[in-house]
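Rotation project, supervised by the postdoc (A.L.). Task for the rotation student: set up a whole-complex structure prediction and record inputs and outputs verbatim in this book. Inputs entered:
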Amino acid sequence: MTMETTAAPQAATPNRSFLRDNPSVMWFIGLLGVFTVIVTVLSEGMGAGVISTNLVKILGMTLCLCLIAIAMDVVWGYCGILSLGHFAFFGLGGYAIGMWLMYARTEIVIRDNLAQGAIPATEQEVAEAVASQIFGVVGSSDLPLIWTFAGSLPAQLALVVLVPGLLALLFGWLAFRSRVTGVYLSILTQAMTLALSLYLFQNDTGLRGNNGLSGLQNIPGALDVPQAIISVWFFWASAVALGLGYLLFAWVVSGKFGSVIRAIRDNEARVRFLGYNVDGYKLFVFTITAVVAGIAGALYYPQAGIINPAEIAPIASIYLAVWVAIGGRGRLYGAVIGAAFVSLLSSWLTGGGAPNVDLGLFRIVWTDWWLVLLGLGFVAVTLFFPKGIGGLFDYLVRKKP
Amino acid sequence: MLGHATAQDASGSPLQDVLQTVQADVANPSRSTVPAVLGALLAADAPGTVDFLRAWSDREVYERPDDGLFFYARAAGDDLTLIDIDNGAEIATVGTRDVNQIRPNAGVRREIGAALVAFELTHPDPDRRIAALDAAARSPEPDQIAAIQAARATETDPAIADRMDRLIALLVARFDQDSATRIAAIEALRGDVSTPARSVLNQLLQTRADFAPTLPEDVNVALVKTPGEEITLAAAYEVLVAAGLAPAAPGRNAIRDALRANVVDGAVGGVPVHQLDNDASRIVAYQALQDAGTLPPLVTEADVAEAVAQYVFFDVYLEPDAAVTAAAAAAQAATTTKVALFQFLSLSFDALSLASIFFLAAIGLAITFGVMRVINMAHGEFIMMGAYTGYVVQTIIPNYTASLAVALPLAFAVTFLAGVVMERLVIRHLYTRPLETLLATFGISIALQQLAKNIFGTQARPLTAPDWLAGAIQINDLVSVAAVRVGIFVMAGLFLLLLLYILNRTRLGLEVRAVTQNPGMAASMGINPDRINMLTFGLGSGIAGVAGVAIGLVAQVTSEMGANYIVQSFMTVVVGGVGSVFGTLAGAALIGSLQKGIEWFNPTNTLAAQTYMVLFIILFIQFRPKGIVALKGRAAGD
Amino acid sequence: MTLLEVSGVSVTFDGFRAINNLSIAIGEPELRAVIGPNGAGKTTFMDIVTGKTRPDTGRVLWGELSVDLVKMSESQIAKAGIGRKFQKPTVFEDQTVRANLSMALKNKRGPFAVLAWKATAADNQRIVELADEVGLTERLEHRAGDLSHGQKQWLEIGMLLAQDPRLLLVDEPAAGMTPAEREHTTDLLKRAAQTRAVVVIEHDMEFIRRLDCRVTVLHEGSVLAEGSLDHVTKNQQVIDVYLGR
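Outputs recorded:
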């Protein structure tokens, strides 16, 4: 696979600062900041009320999707690993934070209830009541082992990073060590995702089976704060995470490290003969992007309010690849454009926001035809615009003197 | 049959007429008169006689004193609705005092039962004899032995005679008076895997739990349960509590409720309420109340142990004869081994069937991905397309056999065409960019899936197998195979042969191999690689379509059915070894048997089986990255 | 002294014996040419030394400590000091000449070290020198994909020198070069061989004559003859199987 151009100018003249070498990063951070201010000012919770709380949530979630999209771009567009598993890491991050949200909120409610009794509840009674409240739906009342730290926010925050990171490390180590590459690796990552979602679908694996975790929009400790405010908080957090993620990845892919991983993408064997431990580089990229995906998921699901195993199904990871491809691989802002464009268009068209088109004999109902359009559009992009929307962008920028 | 002729008289109530000839003996049956009555009724054999006898025996027949006629009845509030015994019509609703319920005594009822069995067992119609045997096997009774033995003496059909012999053996084993006879019969059941034989042994070995201060001598003890080992201390104590031999131990909830009920001035037993948020202080409070006599004493673990130690807990066989239970246990052990073997056989058939489905789903990929190295994520949608073709054909041609005969080639044609179109329009341009092929074909896959949803809806569509494929092939009570699965197995075999023939023995196969190994060289020898790629891709897609029809016969036809198979199909090809049809076969066999094997360990959870199977595959690829059938050397390098 | 010692190595591909009990020793410094007919195993020999192909039997001993390269990965072998130039020029076309050279520079190769790497003045100096050496000074900031075939050959040689290896394995360096460039290549290789070991695979007899070094003739996977060019060209077997006519 050969990519012809790359947006980030390479270490042209050395020893200049990273940001001066990569003006697109400054542009991106600036635009993101402006966007955040506009949304805040227009929001229902903190400003003019032009943008509904629901829309603020959708925009915040879109920022999280942009974050995982740039992670995907680094692992695929730069390093050449078409991972069909990054949405699984995203979901794992969501589950890790979801466990705390659900446990802590249930505990608060249960304590309130038990306080009504004539005598105060013991810790054990609280724990048992919480467990049966959460797991009654799957016919159990015991707290599974993996919920051991669910009551502790720092522990679950650590898990947001550790679970996707360690899984990626283990899986990547196994896969790269045995030199699985190309489409084989894609299929293998897809299998991993499938195994994980099937595992989570089971009732007895301790994450409530296909019920998933719900009520995640209620933040323990801020249960009195209206959703209109919370949505803006999460929007800010998502924007900050996206900005930092963009900075991190822009720094990683510029400079010599970026050179090496792009070289790996283009000719892995040659890089080995230069003395680079290709497996180590791939593992590094795979793991760090998995961690960022987990963080994106941990910010996304409190805004979505619910997470279930269907979110992790292999198809989600393929959609991720679709976004990045449509946005344009090998350029970080391309991934952002692709994720934002496709996911917003998708929720507009499938949410019934778009008017149906009446062609006389035939009526185009967007909820029915959007996926057909996306599928064919995607084929067209792959065939005719391999550089995606970002490529168009490059073209325009280059045209200008 | 003779009686049947006489029954067709003008009155339209043949059974009532026959009954009226022996009215007094029916209304007031006694042991001495009942054999004659039974003889007369059964000889007449009016329709419904058997049902009447059963109802008579079960005290469900009523006599109307006014005219001496007999009726069935149904409760209608406090009254009874009388029902005609010949045609089932409702006659009238009367008070319970207006009719007499006929109540045969136990002796009479036994006579009726024996006569019924004997009558049915010697009935000229063999199906009725078999039905009677089945009924007897379902609810075995000691007095059936004589009736069956009598019937056996006159039985001429060897198959039925054989069944009778077996049933006699079962009944003897269970009910005979003589211990030696029973043991001999039990020995004969050793290794018999039929359901009745196994249930006889199970029934002989049924136990009940009991306890006593010392182990009694006069019972057939199955197992002495040491508290703490075969039975938990808590469970043993529960038994004593249930028998009223020990005080109930209040649990945590009971303690809490007791305390809650005894709050006085913000404290319980002197402990302030706000301190009662842990078990230790709750017990202190409880004990205070216990000392004051307000609450029954707490039961400590020492109390439990002491109470339990005074008794022996054991299981007792319901069957008192120890020699019989020992023989039955030995026979059951022998049977269990055999049952396990047959279960393994059954599992193997399941695995084989699953493997054939995986093989069918994957074999098209074995060509497009395995031979051409083109990854086609829309392969699953071609399977779906084939299945929907079968469904559409079935809605047009109502005869299932004919529609299947049309659907198979049509599905091939439809998906062949779809494959060729896709190859020409999309894949051709991406041969050097495999990852992009993956994505483009995925785009086609989601478009096709949604298209199918728009056309056929989200509801599952049936694809019905013709009658000759609908049944099951029963080997014994443990092993049976659905005929349609045998059909799919045969089809998978045919495809394997066909494909091997095409790839190894035809010009097309030769050219395909030439093009995949060295396209430049092949082109220079006059082979048109475009044409070969197109045909090969069409072939792989066409086979997916036919597989779709086959899979549709056993699974639901939905727009998402292809997606369910795609990952497994790729796994099958990769595990088997890319580029080899035999590899795909090996991969399908491995994955199929593995999945069934894991399911066997945890039969309730097929999701877990799939999870572990995928994990196994991931690990397998670590150790054999090139699959089971690995191509070696330079040609295998990518 | 002996830097590389290949002894008793055999490799089979699907029944075809590509290398058959091959034994070669290379000293340091030394310039060695390897010639032989197509399929003699010349490239496979390089594949084995660089870890691309694992031999079925035999040992490949390296350096003063005589470590067995057979057990090492490609990148470990490269780090141990063996550089390779492929028959078909393989440079990273998507990246600039500078980036290509910079990647090849002898620096720490670990992911974290590379992430933290910043070009020092010495590094830049070295890149400019190398570019000068291979005649690409003007094109340092151009994409390698825009270079001509010959320039790509040069770039690859530059990358090889940037690695500063103890042993250079060079597969058909002169293919597609003008006579002047060939001469330059010869000089370059001869100069490199003054301080290190250089093994050159070439078909062009004129080129080899100019290298003026010891020649090893491979045939059917093993050494047919070894010695000066004049010596081997007089060998009857060599004439029969290779030189012909």
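Student's summary: Strands of chain A lie at 213-214, 306-307, 357-358, 363-364.
Supervisor addendum: The interface with chain C takes residues 2-6, 10-12, 14-15, 252, 255-257, 259-260, 262-263, 266-267, 269-278, 280-281, 284 of chain A (CB under 8 Å).
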